[in-house]
Each structure stands twice: as structure tokens, then as C-alpha cells.
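Morning run. Coffee first, then this:
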Amino acid sequence: MPNRRRFLSVLSATLAGTLVLHACGNPPDKGGGADGSSSAPAADVNLETKTITIGYVPILEAAALVAGVEKGFFAKHGLEVKLVKQASWPAARDNVVIGSAGGGIDGGQWQLPMPHLITEGIITNGKKVPMYVLAQLSSQGNGIAVSNSMKDANLRVNLTPAAPTIIGFPKTEGRKFRAAHTFPHANQDLWIRYWLGAGGIDPDKDIELLTVPSTETFQGMRNGILEAFSTGDPWPFRIVADDIGYMAALTAEIWPVHPEEFLGVRADWVDKNPKATQALLKGLIEAQQWSDKPENKAALAQMLSSRAYFNAPVSVLEPALKAEYKLGADLKPSNDPKLGPLYWNSDRGVISYPYKSLNLWFLVESIRWKFHPGQLDTIAQAQALVDKVVREDLWRQAATDVGVPAADIPSGSSRGKETFFDGIVFDPENPQAYLDSLKIKR
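And here it is:
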């Protein structure tokens, strides 16, 4: 196992040495017009504070935050949003515990259920930092990439035919099939676990499942250390573009219009700054509307490509934003925008709304895998935590004030039943039935 130990040692050093990188960006676009940007004065200039420090990770889920700064949507409402690039998810977690007063961040882009777990001190060494989930940043835009070493298996969404190949992976140097995600017990871990479990593969027993920063997943696959990884674009897209591997499954195929990452802010900041919170939400809503328009994808890709933000080529970012995928080992073209990243519109309604029902799924999955025994064990605990953290009321107020049509503003906390590619149904009114229907669980 020496190679595995060296690999994990390098990763540990990478995480331990994580630094916060500031994204200076360009001055906000002051031009008004049909593209949605505006130089209009703030709706309320009497904000309690004029600034907020928001952390982000350079994947497509952060796109609307960047657009909000670069197109002046936040500034329009009187708020300066300081976007601060996080070198890893552990760095973001640690920085929100510190808070901006200590050189950290006030909130940011989060995989779920990180804000809920931070609130309870479950992933912060017992230090409870109450958080509020204010909005969903995006849907979809994630994928599971597989190394070309598995090209003959042509892994796709339904893994059942390939399960014997994965479980019986050649024990080179004594190891199993190795996959990775970017943070344990959150979005990208849950996507790959669901995919594997639906194919009859136990992610805790049949393979090795590691936590690796997104940049390391790319290099790990290039170097033959990883067979698969789950993360947000542009990384899976780059795997295909660089002919290192192929896209086995889009998360949009696993769960259409699934909840992706969310905006979460420290509760003390929100409680102290209610007007500034509304300014933040108004700017985000307008940025999401702008980011979702097909005619703005090229400009959005250009913004994100900047060294200050993603430092990634437009040639990768633009097709990823437009959902111009090549799927499977045979690289079958797919150009369906409904399979790509969504920021505002969808077949299930407005993306930005922070449904409690969608938040609940992530906590139910935590119970499924027994991630936090003694801390999160029951559905009743999960429901209470969702009620404590999710602030749908603040989103509805901002949406109303910014002119979102009443028909587009959900009036309830549930999006209804959710159906996965394998036919499993999550009914937020009966989460236990969902758990009972899953064959692989702890």
C-alpha cells in the first residue's frame, strides 16, 4: 500500500497548506441595457453594512456570484460583495468559522449539508457556528468522470452491467477500484455514492473512495492514481477535453434538476444586517437570471476564465456552460441545455429557491450512510435542523421586492416527490419510505 500512503500523504499536505486566495476581479460593469446589468442606484442606501466577504470554489456553481460582481448586480443594491477564492472545501469551512472579522469569510458557496453541519459543530470540532441557507446557486453542472483505463467497460449511468468489472478491479499493488470526491459527506460524495449504490456497488466495501481537492483529482487521473471522480465542471469537462478519460454520468442524468450548491451565510451576520441580506439576495437573483440566458453564456465564460476567478480556458468553460457534452467512452455528442448547469429556469420551477424538501434529502442521505452517529441519527433530527437553517422567507421577500412574478415564487417548502434514474422516489413527506427502498445502506 505504499503508493496509496504517499498519495494520501500528499493530499493531507495539500489540505493542511491550503491558503485563501483573493479574487480581485474587474470593476463591476456599469453599463445598463438589455443584458441585465444596471447602473441604477441601490434600492436601499441605508444598509447596515456596505460589504460582505463571500467564499467560493472555482467550479460552475459559483458562476452567478462572479456575474453578480462583474455585472454590478450586487452594487446596484448598494452592497460590495468581496469574492474570496477558497483553495479547498476544508479551507472554506475553516474560514467561515473564523468569520471576516478574523480574516475569514461571512459565508459562501456550499455543498450541502455543510451549513447544517457547521451549525451543529459536527464538522467543526464541536464549535457551533449557526448558518442560514439563503438560496440555491445552481442545479446540475456536475459529472462523474472515468479514466481511459476503464474505456473498455464504457461505464455509464446504469452501472449494473459493469459492477463485476468494478468490484473485481485488478488488485494492482493490492488496491481496489479507486474513486474520489472533493469533500466527505456532501454533494459530490453523495452523487458518486448514489451512482455506485444504484449499480449494486457498495462504496464503503467494494471500492476505495477518497477525498481529494478538485485540482488533485484531475492530476490523480492523469497519473493513473484514480479510476473515477465526482466533482463540478470545469474539471470533468477537462478530463474529456484533455483525453484523460470520459464522462460516465452527468448528475443531471442521475437526478434531473437536482439541487446542487447553495449560498449560506453566518446567522449572526444575517441577523445583524437584514437590509444588507436582502441586497445580497436581490443581486444574486438578478445575477442568476442573467447567467441563465443562452445569449450570455459566452460572456459568462469569459468572466470566469480570468486568472482572478477560475483561471481556466474559455474553450472548456463555454461548452460546459452550454451543455455541449461528449458522453461515454464513445464520446457521443449531447447538446441538450436541460442537462447542463441551470441557474434560474427549469422544468421544476425556479432554481434559486432554497426548498426545505431538497435540503432534507442531503440529511436523509447522511442518515442512510450513518455519517454522523450520535449526532444525526433520525429523520426528526434532520427535519428540525432544516427548519433551523433554511430561510425561505428571506428569499421570498427579496424575490418579491426585485419583481419576480408571483407565479414564480414558491409558496411552500416542498418541491414534491423526486425521482432518480433508477426509479427510486424520495418523497419529503415520507423520507423513511425512501430509506427503506434503498438496497445499499448502513
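Residues 19-139+260-305 form a domain with the D-Maltodextrin-Binding Protein; domain 2 fold (CATH 3.40.190.10). Good start to the day.
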